Amino acid sequence: MTITITAFERSPDGGKGLARDTRVRWALEEVGLAYDVRLVSFRAMKEPAHLALHPFGQIPTYEEDDLVLFETGAIVLHLAQRHSGLLPGDANARARAIAWTFAALNSVEPPVLDLVTAKIVERDQPWAQDRLPLVIDRIRQRLVQLAARLGDAEWLDGAFSAGDLMMASVLLRLRPSGILSEFPSLAAYVARGEARPAYQRAFAAQWAINGAAPQAG
Amino acid sequence: MTITITAFERSPDGGKGLARDTRVRWALEEVGLAYDVRLVSFRAMKEPAHLALHPFGQIPTYEEDDLVLFETGAIVLHLAQRHSGLLPGDANARARAIAWTFAALNSVEPPVLDLVTAKIVERDQPWAQDRLPLVIDRIRQRLVQLAARLGDAEWLDGAFSAGDLMMASVLLRLRPSGILSEFPSLAAYVARGEARPAYQRAFAAQWAINGAAPQAG
Fold it and tell me: Chain A residues with CB inside 8 Å of B67's CB?
């Protein structure tokens, strides 16, 4: 089995590991699979060859022999379902771990991405400064709920799972803003994720590409 | 096996079927499972009994004997994986159908929900009118890409799947805005979804609750 993923030729985050290929690298490391990486430029991502792999012109994609996948959630779930290490054995516990994967991507990440829209995409708009507090408040509302559910547990539902991998990855995007540190239990949860050897290897692999390179425009 | 889902006591859409319980009802009808519904008020959704089922205080939830799930994507995927009718038999085709489920929720729905934020949550903000075209443009960008991938196919990847169920459900939210009708092939795709007997039963079931009742403030 040959696995190839795509990643940014130069990640806009300059090596912070926030691009979505890090999530897939982390999952591959957790389940112990080797993989190749094909780097793509922003221009190549919008060209037919890449659009054939990813209809929305983004990274990462995942190629495994004749299977082509896009959507980070789907790739991580595919790995989790076919290999051991990211989902519990009990059927109901598996379903709950998958629910946390969706929760990370659908209930927590949208307000987090709205912060990127507000701070970067719309930064020159006249409403940028006035709108920002509303966007941040919506993130805080979600984090209050998430912290309440996590309580003092180590992971969201029993052992570390694909759900934790995705939730920690989403929360990591909030660290540069300072919002994550407002929630010490969530910051500690993310730190536990980052301390995992599989995450360390994934981070180092993307850093080797993005950390040393000069940042894009 | 006893299945119970939760739904709005009064859906804010007044019976258009856009609340997320309709997606779960549709999946249950496609796989041929009977279910009970427990209606919850907006106030009850934020109280401890409901938060124990859904950490973000929303609907739907899904209870199946001693399994409790939240997140519509996870519930639909759980049904699709345990029962026939929503995923193809071939392993790679299954993974691709699951990818479309994530794509609907993660790549298409976030800009669609941003329209709700812009039109309703932020409607009284001074930037509301000026910001709206940006929000709509982001939706159009996604729909151009989605229409390009769909082409003249009936469904996104072979036979109707959970991915189509979710994508059609997400696109349905755009019909009231008029944006869906700008993309005739996607409008026809959604209409094919709505024409399915399972969708018709799901819609009728939510209409019986929401359509006749007076709308909430």
Answer: 92, 95-96
Q: CATH 3.40.30.10 occupies which residues in chain A?
A: 3-85+198-210
Of B68, B71, B126, the CB nearest to A106: B71
> Best mutation site among A106, A123, A143 for testing chain B: the one with the most B CBs within 10 Å?
A106
Give one DSSP letter per residue of B65-116, joined into a string: TTEEE-SHHHHHHHHHHHSTTSS-SSHHHHHHHHHHHHHIIIIIHHHHHHHH
Architecture of domain A3-85+198-210 in CATH?
A: 3-Layer(aba) Sandwich (3.40)
* Chain B residue with the nearest C-alpha to that of A64: B92
Asked whether this complex has an ipTM greater than 0.90, the answer is yes
**Interface contact flag, B99 A70, Cβ < 8 Å:** yes
* Shortest alpha-carbon distance between residue B212 and chain A (Å): 30
Q: Which fold does the domain B3-86+198-210 belong to in CATH?
A: Glutaredoxin (3.40.30)
C-beta atoms of A114 and B113 within 8 A:
no
How does pLDDT run along chain B (217 residues), one tens digit per residue? 899 999 999 999 999 999 999 999 999 999 999 999 999 999 999 999 999 999 999 999 999 999 999 999 999 999 999 999 999 999 999 999 999 999 999 999 999 999 999 999 999 999 999 999 999 999 999 999 999 999 999 999 999 999 999 999 999 999 999 999 999 999 999 999 999 999 999 999 999 999 975 554 4
In this structure, what is the dihedral angle of CA atoms A180, A186, A191, A193, given to the nearest 10 degrees?
-120
Q: Which CATH class is domain B91-196?
A: mainly alpha
The owner of tokens 């994934």 is: A202
